[in-house]
Amino acid sequence: MTESTQTAVPADDSFEALFEAQGAMIKEGEVVQGVVLSIDPEQVLVDVGSKSEGMVATWEFADSDGIARIQVGQKVDVLVEKAESDEGTIVLSKEKADRLRVWDQLSSAYDGSDVVEGVITGRVKGGLSVNLNGVKAFLPGSQVDLRPVRNLDRMIGESHKFKIIKFNKRRGNIVLSRRALLETERQSLRQKTLEILQEGLVVEGIVKNLTDYGAFIDLGGIDGLLHITDMSWGRVSHPSELFQVGDQVRVRVLKFDADSERVSLGLKQTQPDPWGDVAARYPIGLRIKGKVVSLADYGAFVELEPGIEGLIHISEMSWTKRVKHPSKVVAIGDEVDVLVLDVDEPNRKISLGMKQVEPNPWAMLEERYPPGTTVKGAVRNVTNFGVFVGIEEGIDGLVHVSDISWTQKVRDPKDLYKKGDEVEAVVLKVDIESEKFSLGIKQMQRNPWEEIPEKYPVGTKISGKATSIADFGVFVEIEEGIEGLVYASEIGQDVDNPRDAVKEGDEVEALVVRIDTSEQKVALSMRAVHDREQRAAIQRVAKQAGSEKATLGDLLSRDALDQLTGGDSD
Predict the structure, then answer these.
(1) CATH architecture classification, 361-444
(2) Where would I find the H helices in 452-514?
(3) HSE on the CB side for 99, CA within 13 Å?
């Protein structure tokens, strides 16, 4: 023992008696207050009273920086680990005294449901480890927050307040809950928020969670939904483009149902509507640049400014190309030059055109190819109504089925043409507005119908083959490609069904009774041939009888009739 700790011993008392007297005053496991007597790098000498001194390791006084901030004369609480060591001093511990004091404080906090504060130090199975002033406690994952936390590691090193929900000093077991405190705070905030919440009110909140369809905003004890369509006047593909969890936002209450406590929020409603004066800012005919933000089968959507989009219809992308899909012309992200074609402000629609910023090739086409011009080109496509002929890049002319031949009945152009065939045709018409180029192949030759009235004047007797028979008459080939029609009434007397009088392939004699070159029709009469022959026969008989001064009765006599009918007057 040092001089400072030596005690005067009565002559009649033994050493054992003195030890028992000191032991009665200083008990092992007890926390006592002492005074620092001396300090060296290894140990600190502490006077704990009752003429007793003890040693405490210097490192037990070290702070977070590793420096023992202690002074001689300073009072400290220490735990008596041994009432007497081999060296005759008391073994003391400041660290264990601090720990016991903390346990007592934690016990009081648990009994009184008080809040404690600690630092999250690491991940453990099922949750997190928390340091409560040197005492280790467990924070279950379910008690970390009001909602499950996916990344617990991000909380390591953070200081938080907790509530002790389980406490066992003997086993050294402490279980904490942060969620219990948050629920209490949230309930208090909830009541205050519900009292002031109303539609139209602009409030501040914190982004709590993001989904594909929107963001949940904590308004203070109650969550509101900010739908993706109410985030911006512009296009938003996902809420993460604008927000992160924890962001503070200023939103407007769009709808509030006090019974269900459902709140719908809007962010764009806190900003001016860009469509308010869009017609003035984007007049028809304005040329402007924009960015392609979306593609559809029928066109491309172009952003002119945040919140303002226009549509380039697929038909407005090119003067000459047949665009099957917008992706063949533009891609998302492309910057394009467009012309404003129409503005529908009430319906928030702007029609845009790409081809209008380039010269219209159809406007110059009429000058280069006036009607009557002969052109050559390859067959690009054949349909049942005509043949498309390539004139120049992106410009096709159509030869309608009716303009293929003057005389041939073309039922399907595919019987005459195929893709790649070289064709020569005449320009009939260029329609700039409808972008149609009409061609004719038959016009390369003279119209044979123009000669028909001269070759077959009305009254001419023709002989031809019956090509087809219908209920209404017989078609007779006058010459190659030219047919006439003998109506059923012109076949002969007492003929109800043309098929009873004529068969296909029969040689037919008929008179031309009418010609319509514009309609390319020739009307024929078989009966007229018979009638004319009858009149001729009568005239011959009359001429012969006239020399003998025959009467009308004579002309109708049996002999005359025999001549007209071939002797079959009966």
Answers:
(1) Beta Barrel (2.40)
(2) 452-455, 498-501
(3) 14
In 297-401, beta strands by DSSP E:
299-305, 308-313, 335-344, 349-353, 374-383, 386-392, 395-400
* Coil, helix or strand at residue 545: helix
Domain 278-357 has CATH 3.60.20.10: no
Residue with tokens 């949940």: 216
Mean pLDDT of 517-522: 84
Beta strands 436-440; 395-400: pairing state: parallel
Which helix (DSSP H) or strand (DSSP E) does residue 189 occupy? helix 179-196
Kindly report the CATH number that applies to the domain delimited by 446-570. 2.40.50.140
State yes or no: pLDDT of 298 exceeds 90: yes
Largest CA distance in the chain: 209
> Which neighbouring-strand residues pair with 131?
119, 136
359 against 223, higher pLDDT = 223
Within 10 angstroms of residue 429's Cβ, the number of other Cβ atoms is 12
CATH 2.40.50.140 residue ranges in the chain? 3-99, 113-182, 197-270, 278-357, 361-444, 446-570
**Local structure of residue 125 (DSSP, 8 states):** T
Identity at 207, one-letter amino acid code: V
> What one-letter code names the amino acid at 12?
D
DSSP H or E run through 100? helix 94-111
| Rg over CA atoms, the chain | 56
Rounded alpha-carbon distances, angstroms, from residue 81 to 177, 183, 263, 540: 34, 43, 62, 166
Please enumerate in sequence order all residues whose Cβ is within 8 A of that of 352, keeping only pairs 6 or more positions apart, or say none. 290, 302, 310, 311, 312, 316, 338, 339, 340, 341
Exposed, middle or buried by CB within 10 Å (0-12, 13-18, 19+), for 472?
exposed
Cβ proximity of 115 and 125 under 8 Å: no
Burial of 73 (0-12, 13-18, 19+ CB in 10 A): exposed
Q: What is the DSSP letter of 497?
A: -
Residues pairing with 140 in the sheet = 127
Q: How far is 207 from 467, CA to CA, in rounded Å?
A: 86
What CA–CA distance (Å, rounded) separates 286 from 306?
18
Contact between 510 and 486 (Cβ < 8 Å) = yes
d(C-alpha 210, C-alpha 228), whole Å: 10
Q: Are strands 299-305 and 349-353 parallel, antiparallel or unpaired?
A: unpaired
pLDDT in tens, 190-201: 888 888 888 889
- Nearest partner of 338 among 346, 326, 325, judged by Cα: 326
pLDDT at 378 over 50: yes
Contact 527, 491 (CB under 8 A): yes
User: Which pTM was predicted?
Assistant: 0.43
Q: Could you read off the pLDDT of 438-455 as tens digits, one per residue?
A: 998 888 888 778 788 888
C-alpha–C-alpha distance, residues 108 and 177, integer Å: 17
The residue to which tokens 């924070």 are assigned: 139
Contact 106, 112 (CB under 8 A): no
